[in-house]
Each structure stands twice: as C-alpha cells, then as structure tokens.
Amino acid sequence: MDKLKVMSVFGTRPEAIKMAPVVQALENNVKIQSIVCTTAQHRQMLDQVLELFKITPNYDLNIMKNNQDLWTLTSDILLNMKNIFEKAKPDIILVHGDTTTASATALSAFYAKIPIGHVEAGLRTFNKFYPFPEEINRVIVDAVSSLYFAPTKNSVQNLVKSGIKNEDNIILTGNTVIDALLYTVNNHETNLDQLNLNPNLKTILITSHRRENLGKPLEEICKAIIELVKQNKNIQIIYPVHLNPNVRQTVFSILKNKERIILTDPLEYAPFATLMKKADIILTDSGGIQEEAPSLGKPVLVLRDETERPEALEYGTVKLVGTNKEKIIDTINHLLNSKEEYNKMATAINPYGDGLASQRIVDAILKHFNK
Ligand code: UD1
Ligand code: UDP
C-alpha cells in the first residue's frame, strides 16, 4: 500500500514547538511518509527547537532576512512553496496557527489544489488589526483548509459559526503545545545556573514581541518594569528578549544594566520551560505562553487588550492587563502583596489539552483518507 505523504510546514519558534510532537507522531506511523519543510521565517529561534526535538527538515527555504517586512515574507514563501510542492507531491499539507508562514503556505497549497490541514484552527478575536497580522492569517488559513484541528470547544464553535459546511472535518484535538510541554518538562528539565537568578528573590518572567506592541506600548511595559523593581526590593525580573531588532532596540535602551533586571537572548525551549515552572508571575503577550503557563499553575498577566484564548481567562488564571504602565504596576503589586489573590490565580488547570492532541491529528488524517 502506498504511504500517505503528509507534509508539515512551519517557520517560526512557536510553530516549530507546536508542530514538533505532530511530526513525531507522523514519523511513528507506518502508513505515513512524513515530509518536513521549514520556511525558516525565524532562523536561530527555529534551529533551537529543531535540535531539541531532533527534527531534520527535508526542505529548508532559509528565507529569513534581518527586519523583514510582511510583503517580502509573503511573496518569498508563496513562490518558493510552489516549487517544493512540485518536487514533493504531498497528499496533504499541515500548517500551524497564524503566522505568515502559515497563511502564505496555505494560499500556495490552495493554488496547487493540495488539501490543507490547519493545526490550531478556529482562534479568533474578530478584530482584524488585533493581533496584527495574525487574525487575518488565521482567517485566510481556515478559508482554504479541508481539515480543521481545533484546540478547544470555543475554537470549534468559531469554525462552525464561520459556516464550514462539513462539520465532520472539524476535529476537537486539544492544543499540541501541551504535548510539547509535557515531553519537554518530563525529559529535559534543565539547570538554570547560567541565568544567575537570586534564589532569595521572587521571579517575574517577561516576554513581549507582538507587532502591535512595538514602539510606545513596549516602552510603557519597560517603564512599568523599572518602577516595579524600584518599589519591590524582593523581586527580580528575567526577560528573554526576542530577536526582532524592533523589540531589542526598545528593551535594551530602557532596561539594560539595571539592578535586579536580567536580560537574556531567547532561551532554548527546555530551559525556558524550566524557567516558567520556577517563576512566580509571568507577564507576556505571547500566545503559546498563555496556553502553557496555566498547566504549570502560574499566574499570567497578558500584555494585550484582547485575546483569542479566552479559556484560561474564564478559569481566572490569566488576566488581561494591556500595556498601560499604571495598570501593569498596580496588578503586579496586588499579586505580590495579596496571598489570597495570588493563590486564586496560581491554580493548575489545563483547558488547552491533555498531551494527546498530536495523535488525534494523525488519526483524523488517516480516517479522512480512508487509510
Ligand atoms: C513572528 C510571527 C508572529 C509570531 C512570532 C513568534 C508573522 C508576521 N509574525 O513574529 O505571528 O507570534 O513570530 O515569535 O508571521 N529574528 C532573528 N532570528 C530569529 C527570529 C527573528 O534575527 O530566529 C529577527 C529578524 O531580524 C526578523 C525579525 O526578527 O526579520 C522579525 O521576524 P518575523 O518572523 O518577521 O516577526 P516576529 O515578530 O518574530
Ligand atoms: N519560548 C522559548 N524561549 C523563550 C521564550 C519563549 O522557547 O525565550 C517558547 C514558549 O514556551 C512558547 C513559545 O516559545 O512555547 C512561544 O513563542 P512566541 O512567544 O515567540 O510566539 P507566540 O506564542 O506569541 O506565537
């Protein structure tokens, strides 16, 4: 029997983390020939993940340019993928989430009339500029997909409401980020000595990189951090700074060489997961971290005004604080000073999955192709 050719395409750090367990599950299935193609929309941050999960791509477009814009990124991917599809002749393409790698690859596969499976389908804020450009990237991918792997009931509902005709093609799987997180914390707990954290201080972990937060909002976030460290002598801040030059310029100019503020390059996933477990509070605009931290029992303050991930908000372990300096300071001070408030938020819940999402995705693909 001919094997089903399943091609997974991804290019950034979060896509790689969330697709790695899917690739592992595809590779372990005898009925499937797994093909991996990376755009390398991210280079260093992607390679960190490939190494951890021991993934060697069959195709690597290596398209990242310094400070790339959305037009070049989109057109490079759209055209390059056409050539890859002609060589590899996949039966189905899997893309993930809401990056430009996902939207441009999906559009390219649609033009080639190759079925698309969307991993992490159905997330929405219903605000086309927030997050930008991710909200429209998701809409584009869902518009051209044939199989929808929805992480939560809420994302299933969004897809149903969007008018997808055959609801059997929407599969509730859980989020593969939990598969990746469990694999990593169970197999790769890491020593954090290199970060020089003071064990006697409370640790606040920060990440921020969203395009809509670049400039003034990110400055506000950094100023809030300076103020918090001044007001609380018992805290330290650790901030692994994204490699986007527009993020680094702001963060380093405001936070460099300040007492009890540690700036590092992006951490590999295994030490980062260990650091999340160790942190007392997490402040982030990342999508993936909003999904991971609740299962580690960590309060998360989200540096955004809207989220496409309402589940942990409903349970109360995640709160939206936006990017207003005073609001960030007040919310963190309240968490630091009120045990009751802290304990209410520091509840380990798992609305995003049980660690078996990748297997459900593989099973659904085989079923779809009657294999
Ligand atoms: C991208 C995604 C965003 C996702 C984020 C995860 C788009 C438009 N944006 O945003 O949805 O949340 O990844 O991190 O798809 N860079 C490096 N090395 C790296 C990675 C980035 O030097 O390994 C620098 C480069 O100068 C690059 C810039 O960062 O041009 C921006 O990268 P890009 O992928 O365009 O945007 P992100 O903000 O990372
Ligand atoms: N992450 C990491 N190292 C870091 C910061 C984050 O490995 O220094 C992981 C994090 O655990 C999560 C993913 O990267 O799984 C999130 O990526 P990012 O914040 O870049 O993108 P988003 O989730 O917003 O799309």
Structure report:
The protein is of the alpha/beta class. It has 15 helices and 13 strands. It has helices spanning 13-27, 44-52, 70-88, 100-111, 134-144, 153-161, 176-187, 216-231, 245-255, 269-278, 287-295, 311-315, 325-337, 339-345, 357-368; strands spanning 4-10, 32-38, 59-60, 92-96, 116-119, 147-150, 170-172, 202-207, 235-240, 261-264, 281-284, 300-302, 318-320. The strands form two sheets. Strands 3-2-1-4-5-6-7 form a seven-stranded parallel beta sheet, with helices on both faces. Helix 1 crosses helix 7 (176-187) and helix 8 (216-231) runs parallel beside helix 13 (325-337). The longest helix is centred in the first third of the chain and has 19 residues, at 70-88. The radius of gyration is 20 Å and the shape is globular. The N and C termini lie close together (9 Å). Bound molecules: uridine-diphosphate-N-acetylglucosamine and uridine-5'-diphosphate. Uridine-5'-diphosphate is lined by residues 13-14, 17, 177, 207, 209, 240, 266-267, 269, 272, 286-289, 292.
Report, as a whole number of angstroms, the end-to-end distance: 9 Å
Report Rg: 20 Å
SS element count, helices: 15
What is the percent of helical residues?
Answer: 40-55%
Mean pLDDT: 97
Shape type: globular
Give the number of DSSP strands: 13
Q: Would you identify the regions where 5 or more consecutive residues have pLDDT less than 50?
A: none
**Ligand kinds:** uridine-diphosphate-N-acetylglucosamine, uridine-5'-diphosphate
Largest sheet entry: 7 strands, parallel
Helix-strand pattern: EHEHEHEHEHEHEHEHEHEHEHEHEHHH
* Strand line-up in the sheet with most strands: 3-2-1-4-5-6-7
Strand content: 15-25%
* Secondary structural class: alpha/beta
